[in-house]
């Protein structure tokens, strides 16, 4: 006979453990248990049948895997929590006795592990445990960065101590510095929530969200203990990730941090980035912000002249020297074009494909320009993005903080100024006082030889990887819409950024051409039988456009054409004449033929599809039909949008 | 009797022994009876002479003495073999004048210092109020920082995972580390309706732009407004349901009242029967018909009918069985088809989107408490500006992040407890004011 099985000895009852049981097993308090679970990455689970798991009559709500909890027993951090508990007891005992100084002594000693001989607990070992490889860590960086950037922008309260905020901010700025040096930033998006950034590090796309400044309210319904625990973990993680990233490109970590500059709002400028080996590498890769004199230095000019002469004389071996010279002249690190080689961490690790460098190097996008940020623009994101895309010299109003290239708006070296102010109209009244006029003039003052743009220009340039025309983004101009760079455009979808030719289907293009031809003919006819209600013509054209959109009617007209042709042939036969060919020029005819061929092809495809559909099961067929229906609806909408645009463009070209 | 007596004669003054009243000549001083006082004085004089003073006026030291020697007779009463105390106590009591070497290492007592002299203060052990408050917090389990966050000083990923020395030193058996179970690597439970894992940061759609394309914005606005309308409809429905419920309960209560009232009434009606007003129902009862004996023909007929019925039943049963047997095949086919369809659907869903949707959550929640609702992240049409400066950011990122953690199943939802539950206090009046006596 088989062994008698007892209830609650095998299966779900053994595999899962309730939270209360877990807490009791680990001898922790519930908040400590929560913390430990967050740090170690132990998540609540859901058994298939809750009743089979718990033996108690009351419904338990949270379950964990028993094995996970068993593994937690080996965690050194557990000892930390127990030590803390002991300390709490000692202090409360001393306070209960009324011996406050004794309580203070206990507390003080616990804070000095070097005196007590007890170890200081960190999360360092957890990092490696949870992210065995560096790529694993990069994959989880989305959440980490979003959290830390958020906390860096919070006001300090009792729940969020100022120390934590300062540390978050520092780590975030260090990470930004890495992206600036490595030119890893790819895209950015201004949303209503905050600013999204996307960077590519070692082939991994990392997306994070940064809040706008001074916007975060502390809400009551958020558990800051839990958030704080996450932040503690993520701070450790980002610190290690930063270390790895910095050392991978030969920089020293941590970078030198100037507290004084930071206090004055230096932000990115408060860090001085150095190479690992300072003795050999003379180029301190600090954010110099163009500390070189920005007038024309005679020495530099001489050098340049020399180079030019050399260029003219001997084009072969100039390149090398030229690079040297520019490096010397600028006193700055030349953009690091070399792409990181991805060697597998362990032998047998995955080797990532090497990305091919695109024609538009992100490191070069803004490298030629000097920017000036007006005081109403958001400095932090602009500075970060501009620097990450190669800009070396950024000036801003002194209101925006320390570390600017120049605070003088009238500096002649400035090529671009970012303005987010509407153009102020001067009082147009006759008796308008001169003072008002003057202020408006002062506010609207424009320096010649400088491009004025709104902030969105920077984002659109970055996302499209090209310099957009600044006229569209001029101050006071109504801006083109800011599109999300993260939306993958599906095939055939209407995309307002692309020109019509790039996105319309063949059939549509042909239709449009034909319609154009027809119109031209009509116009000729109109010219023939002079001024017959040209006003009606437009409306007719519009009708025609509408007809173009509807395919069914199109088919109908096609049929009509065919019947007409047949009739003509019949008539000719009866009369014994040759078939009268419809008077069409060759161009139109070829187009018509192409159209016919296209239609034929479409018909064949549809038939094939119908046949294939017959093979499917009923349920699958239904699903497929549903899908097709929605797709058709969407594409019809796209076609409509495109036709609308075509019409608009035509009108524009006419006018 | 007085010790000293005058040589002769009666020293007493003239006496008048009976003094019934103090009025009149008889109450004169010379006539007062002072014999009692005289006697007392004599006694005192005697005492002074005999003992050297009045006892009442003497100090207690003069009267008593401390007996230091003790009573010698007590020792004789007890036997000698009973020891005075425990041996341990005896040993302990033998203390050395030199203090013992401390066995425990006490924190902060090491002789090495950092060279900075401590600030001399008047009250070295004084703890100010702020510090005390902090200590109380720590005693309550609210530590400022539970772990040390140290600046990274090495590359954690630089060393290989396995110990390289493991193969080198085979003669030493290395302590085996606890292996992490496989369950640790399982992804947390996603709360999305389709069960797919939700990304930490969801890629924003075009409608989320601060300066969106009209079509995107319109789509988003329609979507959000449909959601709001739906929520409002649900709210109204709930209200209506509540109202109906209340009404029904009120009605049933009214009915119950009415029934009770009727019951009360019926008691009176019963009385009315006594008055001869009752209905005449009892008089209408008819006589039951007596069954007649069945004839043989009838019996045969019944038999035949019963036989036929049985046969028909059997045939129907057989037919049903056959039909069911035929259906078995069909059912098995249907089941197989269903199974296939489900699998296909699964595959298709996989193809459609590899990410879970944050908005469409599953019904079964994790933990006891409900997820907080998502903030409405939409700039209304009249607030839509195309300037970054004028943008009013919508939604709370803090809440968004918190919710993201919950939705991804990293932690379970918690109820917000702004403060600890206080002990319940019952306020009563003291009744002592009634305890008085006139």
From TrEMBL, chain A:
<dbReference type="InterPro" id="IPR001357">
    <property type="entry name" value="BRCT_dom"/>
</dbReference>
<dbReference type="GO" id="GO:0043021">
    <property type="term" value="F:ribonucleoprotein complex binding"/>
</dbReference>
<keyword id="KW-0690">Ribosome biogenesis</keyword>
<feature type="region of interest" description="Disordered">
    <location>
        <begin position="428"/>
        <end position="447"/>
    </location>
</feature>
<comment type="subunit">
    <text>Component of the NOP7 complex, composed of ERB1, NOP7 and YTM1. Within the NOP7 complex ERB1 appears to interact directly with NOP7 and YTM1. The NOP7 complex also associates with the 66S pre-ribosome.</text>
</comment>
<dbReference type="GO" id="GO:0000466">
    <property type="term" value="P:maturation of 5.8S rRNA from tricistronic rRNA transcript (SSU-rRNA, 5.8S rRNA, LSU-rRNA)"/>
</dbReference>
<comment type="function">
    <text>Component of the NOP7 complex, which is required for maturation of the 25S and 5.8S ribosomal RNAs and formation of the 60S ribosome.</text>
</comment>
<dbReference type="GO" id="GO:0005654">
    <property type="term" value="C:nucleoplasm"/>
</dbReference>
<dbReference type="Pfam" id="PF00533">
    <property type="entry name" value="BRCT"/>
</dbReference>
<dbReference type="Pfam" id="PF06732">
    <property type="entry name" value="Pescadillo_N"/>
</dbReference>
<feature type="region of interest" description="Disordered">
    <location>
        <begin position="98"/>
        <end position="117"/>
    </location>
</feature>
<feature type="compositionally biased region" description="Acidic residues">
    <location>
        <begin position="537"/>
        <end position="562"/>
    </location>
</feature>
<dbReference type="GO" id="GO:0030687">
    <property type="term" value="C:preribosome, large subunit precursor"/>
</dbReference>
<feature type="region of interest" description="Disordered">
    <location>
        <begin position="477"/>
        <end position="655"/>
    </location>
</feature>
<protein>
    <recommendedName>
        <fullName>Pescadillo homolog</fullName>
    </recommendedName>
</protein>
<feature type="compositionally biased region" description="Basic and acidic residues">
    <location>
        <begin position="99"/>
        <end position="117"/>
    </location>
</feature>
<dbReference type="InterPro" id="IPR010613">
    <property type="entry name" value="PES"/>
</dbReference>
<keyword id="KW-0539">Nucleus</keyword>
<feature type="domain" description="BRCT">
    <location>
        <begin position="361"/>
        <end position="475"/>
    </location>
</feature>
<feature type="compositionally biased region" description="Acidic residues">
    <location>
        <begin position="503"/>
        <end position="530"/>
    </location>
</feature>
<keyword id="KW-0698">rRNA processing</keyword>
<dbReference type="InterPro" id="IPR036420">
    <property type="entry name" value="BRCT_dom_sf"/>
</dbReference>
TrEMBL record, chain B:
<feature type="compositionally biased region" description="Acidic residues">
    <location>
        <begin position="348"/>
        <end position="358"/>
    </location>
</feature>
<dbReference type="GO" id="GO:0006364">
    <property type="term" value="P:rRNA processing"/>
</dbReference>
<comment type="function">
    <text>May play a role in ribosome biogenesis.</text>
</comment>
<feature type="region of interest" description="Disordered">
    <location>
        <begin position="1"/>
        <end position="30"/>
    </location>
</feature>
<feature type="region of interest" description="Disordered">
    <location>
        <begin position="247"/>
        <end position="324"/>
    </location>
</feature>
<dbReference type="InterPro" id="IPR011687">
    <property type="entry name" value="Nop53/GLTSCR2"/>
</dbReference>
<feature type="region of interest" description="Disordered">
    <location>
        <begin position="342"/>
        <end position="361"/>
    </location>
</feature>
<keyword id="KW-0539">Nucleus</keyword>
<keyword id="KW-0690">Ribosome biogenesis</keyword>
<dbReference type="Pfam" id="PF07767">
    <property type="entry name" value="Nop53"/>
</dbReference>
<dbReference type="GO" id="GO:0005730">
    <property type="term" value="C:nucleolus"/>
</dbReference>
<dbReference type="GO" id="GO:0005654">
    <property type="term" value="C:nucleoplasm"/>
</dbReference>
<feature type="compositionally biased region" description="Basic residues">
    <location>
        <begin position="20"/>
        <end position="29"/>
    </location>
</feature>
<dbReference type="GO" id="GO:0000027">
    <property type="term" value="P:ribosomal large subunit assembly"/>
</dbReference>
<dbReference type="GO" id="GO:0008097">
    <property type="term" value="F:5S rRNA binding"/>
</dbReference>
<comment type="similarity">
    <text>Belongs to the NOP53 family.</text>
</comment>
<protein>
    <recommendedName>
        <fullName>Ribosome biogenesis protein NOP53</fullName>
    </recommendedName>
</protein>
């Amino acid at each position: 006979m088989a062994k008698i099985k007892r209830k609650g000895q095998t299966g779900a009852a053994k595999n899962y453990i309730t939270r209360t049981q877990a807490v009791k097993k680990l001898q922790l308090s519930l908040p400590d248990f929560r913390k430990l679970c967050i740090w170690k990455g132990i998540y609540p689970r859901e058994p298939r049948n809750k009743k089979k798991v718990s033996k108690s009559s009351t419904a338990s709500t949270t379950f964990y895997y028993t094995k996970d909890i068993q593994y937690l027993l080996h965690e050194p951090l557990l000892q930390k929590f127990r030590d803390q508990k002991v300390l709490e007891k000692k202090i409360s005992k001393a306070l209960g006795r009324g011996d406050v100084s004794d309580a203070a002594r206990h507390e003080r000693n616990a804070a000095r592990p070097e005196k007590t001989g007890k170890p200081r607990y960190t999360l360092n070992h957890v990092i490696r445990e949870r992210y065995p490889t560096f790529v694993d860590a990069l994959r989880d960086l989305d959440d980490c960065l979003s959290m830390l950037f958020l906390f860096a922008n919070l006001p300090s309260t009792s729940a969020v101590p100022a120390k934590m905020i300062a540390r978050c901010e520092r780590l975030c700025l260090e990470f930004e510095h890495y992206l600036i040096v490595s030119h890893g930033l790819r895209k950015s998006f201004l949303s209503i929530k905050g600013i999204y950034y996307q960077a590519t590090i070692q082939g991994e796309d990392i997306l994070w969200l940064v809040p706008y400044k001074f916007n975060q309210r502390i809400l009551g319904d958020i558990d800051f203990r839990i958030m704080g625990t996450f932040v503690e973990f993520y701070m450790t993680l980002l610190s290690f990730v930063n270390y790895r990233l910095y050392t991978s490109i030969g920089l020293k970590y941590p970078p030198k941090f100037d507290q004084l500059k930071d206090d004055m709002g230096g932000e990115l400028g408060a860090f001085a980035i150095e190479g690992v080996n300072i003795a050999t590498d003379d180029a301190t890769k600090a954010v110099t912000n163009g500390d070189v004199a920005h007038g024309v230095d005679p020495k530099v000019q001489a050098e340049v002249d020399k180079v030019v002469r050399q260029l003219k004389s001997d084009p072969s071996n100039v390149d090398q020297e030229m690079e040297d010279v520019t490096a010397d002249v600028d006193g700055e690190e030349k953009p690091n074009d070399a792409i990181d080689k991805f060697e597998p961490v362990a032998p047998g690790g995955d080797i990532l494909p090497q990305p091919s460098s695109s024609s538009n190097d992100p490191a070069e996008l803004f490298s030629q320009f000097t920017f000036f940020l007006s005081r109403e623009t958001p400095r932090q994101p602009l500075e970060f993005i501009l620097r990450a895309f190669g800009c070396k010299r950024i000036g801003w109003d002194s209101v925006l903080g320390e570390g600017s290239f120049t605070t003088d708006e009238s500096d002649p070296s400035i090529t671009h100024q970012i303005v987010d102010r509407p153009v102020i109209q001067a009082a147009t009244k006759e008796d308008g006082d001169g003072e008002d006029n003057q202020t408006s003039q002062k506010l609207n003052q424009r320096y010649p030889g400088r491009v004025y743009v709104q902030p969105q220009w920077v984002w659109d340039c970055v996302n499209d990887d090209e310099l957009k025309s600044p006229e569209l983004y001029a101050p006071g101009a109504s801006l083109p819409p800011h599109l999300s760079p993260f939306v993958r455009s599906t095939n055939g979808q209407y995309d307002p950024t692309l020109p019509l030719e790039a996105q319309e289907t063949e059939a549509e293009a042909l239709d449009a051409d034909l319609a154009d031809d027809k119109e031209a003919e009509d116009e000729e006819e109109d010219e023939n039988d002079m001024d017959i209600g040209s006003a009606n013509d437009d409306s007719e054209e519009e009708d025609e456009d509408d007809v173009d959109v509807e395919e069914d009617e199109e088919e109908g007209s096609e049929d009509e054409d065919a019947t007409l042709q047949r009739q003509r042939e019949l008539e000719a036969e009866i009369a014994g004449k040759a078939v009268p060919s419809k008077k069409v020029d060759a161009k139109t005819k070829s187009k018509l033929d192409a159209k016919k061929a296209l239609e034929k092809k479409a018909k064949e495809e549809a038939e094939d599809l119908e046949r294939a559909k017959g093979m499917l099961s009923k349920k699958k067929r239904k699903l497929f039909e549903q899908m097709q229906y929605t797709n058709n609806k969407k594409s019809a909408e796209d076609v409509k949008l495109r036709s609308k645009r075509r019409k608009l463009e035509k009108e524009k070209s006419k006018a | 009797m007085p010790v000293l007596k005058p040589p002769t004669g009666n020293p007493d003054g003239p006496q008048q022994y009976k003094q019934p009243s103090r009025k009149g000549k008889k109450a004169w001083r010379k006539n007062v009876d002072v014999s009692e006082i005289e006697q007392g004085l004599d006694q005192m004089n005697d005492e002074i002479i005999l003992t050297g003073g009045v006892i009442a006026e003497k100090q207690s030291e003069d009267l008593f003495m401390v007996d230091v020697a003790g009573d010698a007779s007590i020792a004789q009463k007890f036997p000698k073999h009973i020891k005075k105390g425990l041996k341990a106590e005896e040993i302990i009591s033998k203390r050395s004048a030199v203090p013992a070497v401390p066995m425990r290492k006490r924190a902060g007592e090491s002789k090495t210092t950092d060279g900075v002299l401590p600030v001399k203060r008047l009250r070295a052990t004084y703890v100010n109020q702020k510090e005390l408050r902090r200590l109380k917090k720590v005693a309550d389990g609210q530590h400022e920082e539970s772990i040390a966050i140290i600046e990274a000083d090495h590359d954690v990923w630089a060393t290989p995972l396995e110990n390289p020395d493991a193969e080198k030193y085979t003669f030493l058996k290395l302590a085996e580390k606890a292996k992490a179970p496989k369950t640790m690597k399982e992804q947390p439970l996603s709360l999305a309706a389709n069960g797919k894992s939700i990304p930490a940061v969801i890629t924003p759609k075009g409608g989320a732009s601060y300066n969106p394309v009209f079509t995107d914005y319109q789509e988003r606005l329609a979507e959000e407004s449909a959601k709001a309308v739906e929520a409002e409809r649900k709210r109204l429905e709930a209200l209506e349901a509540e109202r109906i419920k209340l009404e029904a309960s009120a009605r049933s209560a009214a009915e119950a009242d009415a029934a009770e009232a009727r019951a009360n009434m019926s008691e009176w009606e019963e009385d009315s029967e006594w008055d001869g007003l009752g209905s005449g129902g009892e008089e209408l009862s008819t006589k039951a018909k007596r069954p007649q004996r069945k004839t043989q023909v009838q019996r045969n007929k019944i038999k035949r009918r019963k036989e036929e019925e049985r046969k028909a039943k059997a045939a129907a049963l057989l037919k049903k069985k056959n039909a069911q047997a035929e259906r078995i095949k069909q059912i098995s086919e249907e089941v197989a088809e269903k199974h296939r369809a489900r699998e296909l659907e699964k595959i298709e869903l996989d193809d459609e989107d590899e990410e879970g949707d944050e908005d469409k959550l599953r019904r079964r929640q994790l933990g006891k408490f409900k997820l907080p609702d998502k903030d409405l992240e939409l700039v209304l049409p009249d607030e839509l500006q195309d300037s970054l400066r004028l943008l009013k950011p919508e939604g709370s990122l803090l809440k968004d992040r918190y919710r993201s953690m919950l939705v991804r199943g990293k932690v379970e939802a918690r109820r917000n407890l702004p403060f600890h539950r206080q002990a319940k206090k019952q306020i009563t009046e003291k009744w002592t004011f009634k305890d008085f006596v006139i």
